[in-house]
C-alpha cells in the first residue's frame, strides 16, 4: 500500500505501510508502561522529544503516562530538544531550520530524562541530542525511547524502549508520518503511519555505491 508524504514525489520506489495508526498507538502504550516500570513510577521524570517528530511522540507518551498515574503532569514534564547546531553533518546540510528547545520549568538536573525520537538509524542524531542535553543540564539518568529501530548503527548507541525493531537494507527509507508534523490526506487508519520506501529492482540507482536513505 502506498502512502506518499505530503507534497513528496517518490519515483522508482515501492512503498508499504509497516505500522498503522492503531499499531503506533499500541506501541506507545507499551513504551509508556515500560517507562513506568523502569522508573518505578513517574517521580522526577522528564520526557524530551527530539525535534521534529520526536516531540509529538513525546507528548503522546506523556499523555499516556498521565492516564496511568494521575500525579504525573504531562504538560509540565514534557519538552522539546533541538539538535540542529550539534549535528555532525551541519556543513553538508546548512539549510536545516532550528526548532525551539523547550525545557520544563523544573529543569532536568538530577532527574530521569527519556529522550524520544521517531527512528533510530546510525545513532548520530542521538549523539547530537546527548551533546545538546549537556548544555541544558545534568540529568541523573538518560534513557532513549524510539518508535522504530531500523538498525545500521554507526555509533555504539542502543534504545531502552523500542516500538518496533525493523530490519531494513541501507537502500530503503523509513518514513514516520504523524498528524501533528505531516498534515495531509491519507487513507483511513493511516493518519499516523510508518512507511518503507524501497527502490524498484529495475532502477539502475539500486546498484550505485552509497545509494541509500538516511533517517
UniProtKB/TrEMBL annotation:
Catalytic activity: UMP + diphosphate = 5-phospho-alpha-D-ribose 1-diphosphate + uracil
Chain's gene name: pyrR
Biased composition (Basic and acidic residues): 180-193
HAMAP family linked to this entry: PyrR
Function of the protein: Regulates the transcription of the pyrimidine nucleotide (pyr) operon in response to exogenous pyrimidines.
EC number per UniProt: 2.4.2.9
Top-level taxon of the source organism: Bacteria
Span of domain Phosphoribosyltransferase: 24-162
Pfam entry (one): Pribosyltran
Keywords: Glycosyltransferase, Transcription, Transcription regulation, Transferase
Motif, PRPP-binding: chain positions: 113-125
Top enzyme category: transferase
Protein name: Bifunctional protein PyrR
Keyword Metal-binding: no
Recorded GO MF terms: glycosyltransferase activity
Family: Belongs to the purine/pyrimidine phosphoribosyltransferase family. PyrR subfamily.
Annotated spans, Disordered: 180-215
InterPro entries according to UniProt: PRTase-like (IPR029057), PRTase_dom (IPR000836), PyrR (IPR023050), PyrR_bifunctional (IPR050137)
Amino acid at each position: 500500500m502506498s502512502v506518499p508524504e505530503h507534497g513528496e514525489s517518490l519515483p522508482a520506489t515501492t512503498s508499504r505501510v509497516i505500522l498503522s495508526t492503531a499499531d503506533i498507538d499500541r506501541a506507545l502504550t507499551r513504551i509508556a508502561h515500560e517507562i513506568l516500570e523502569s522508573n518505578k513510577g513517574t517521580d522526577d521524570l522528564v520526557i524530551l522529544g527530539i525535534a521534529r517528530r520526536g516531540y509529538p511522540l513525546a507528548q503522546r507518551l506523556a499523555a499516556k503516562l498521565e492516564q496511568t498515574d494521575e500525579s504525573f503532569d504531562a504538560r509540565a514534564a514534557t519538552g522539546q530538544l533541538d539538535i540542529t547546531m550539534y549535528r555532525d553533518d551541519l556543513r553538508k546540510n546548512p539549510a536545516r531550520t532550528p526548532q525551539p528547545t523547550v525545557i520544563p520549568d523544573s529543569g532536568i538536573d538530577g532527574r530521569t530524562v527519556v529522550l524520544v525520537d521517531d527512528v533510530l538509524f546510525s545513532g548520530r542524531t542521538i549523539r547530537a541530542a546527548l551533546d545538546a542535553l549537556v548544555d541544558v543540564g545534568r540529568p541523573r539518568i538518560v534513557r532513549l525511547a524510539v518508535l522504530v529501530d531500523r538498525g545500521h548503527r554507526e555509533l555504539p548507541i542502543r534504545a531502552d524502549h523500542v516500538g518496533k525493531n525493523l530490519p531494513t537494507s541501507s537502500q530503503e527509507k523509513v518514513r514516520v508520518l504523524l498528524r501533528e508534523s505531516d498534515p495531509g490526506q491519507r487513507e483511513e487508519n493511516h493518519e499516523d503511519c510508518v512507511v518503507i520506501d524501497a527502490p524498484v529492482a529495475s532502477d539502475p540507482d539500486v546498484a550505485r555505491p552509497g545509494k541509500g536513505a538516511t533517517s
